[in-house]
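Give me structure tokens for this 316-residue protein.
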Amino acid sequence: MEVIHLKYPHQLQQRESIQPYSLAIGFFDGVHIGHQAVIEAAKQEGDKRQIPTAVMTFDPHPSLVLGGRNEKVFYITLLQQKLQLFEELGVDTVFVVHFTSDFAKLSPAAFIDTFIRGLNIQHVTAGFDFSFGAFGKGTLEDMRALSNGEYGVTVVDKKTDSLEKISSTRIRKLLQEGDMEAARTLLGRPFEIKGIVVHGDKRGRTMGFLTANVQALEGTYIPASGVYAVRLLVQNNWYDGVCNVGYKPTFKDPNDKQLSIEVHILNFEKNIYGEEVHVAWYKRIRSERKFDGIEALKMQIEKDKQEAIQFFHVMK
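Here you go.
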């Protein structure tokens, strides 16, 4: 899969000609099953026209530019994870458009001239609520009206389950609540983060539970504090585990707000400091709480471990 980074006004002068594409367009945070439906529709159109499928996404999040926000934005899927998911979905090319103030000022017509006609897009597919151009004034009806017959447009209706529309906002709320099973249903896969194993306080070692202290990549959305059944990918192998997300209230000063992600990997004793790992979240076992001493905590950790073992046994 080819990845092309564009910044307005973009330059593709190194290419003598640009091949035609069937394009799926959107921010696609989470690449959930609604987003997957948009990409699949674009792929079907590409197959029909015998042209490759491309995805156009944007970085950073538009709210950082449009809203003038100073705080961090946390993503369900960081850019590199999005790219990996696009590749797994069979996308041929990804256009990553750098979202800047100048880009945000483009009129809908100028956006189409530059990023649709200028990239030789033969067909555009997007979700029903996609908007573009300055202040998001451009709609998919405008996209179609401004085409002059030079490209087609497909609008993918909202995807719902028995409750409501499937959306990135809804998935974030589920992550805030720690409902990993519902999030997994909407994503079409377990929620996953990437990080590096770093040195922690090594307290788990003294209690007989070795843990990997995972430092998540900046911008990663971290689920609600609590204890979870997870799987951890390290050195190309997946292992079952139990993860504690939180502030370790049994040991820490309540004013210490340093969040930790600690994974006890089942049947694993290797030293993996410095390794890049993926943590896939399956089920919240319980909320984090303070215990009356180490022995009470050790007993609870053993219960958590057994619950995770049972969960993965049934799942397999």
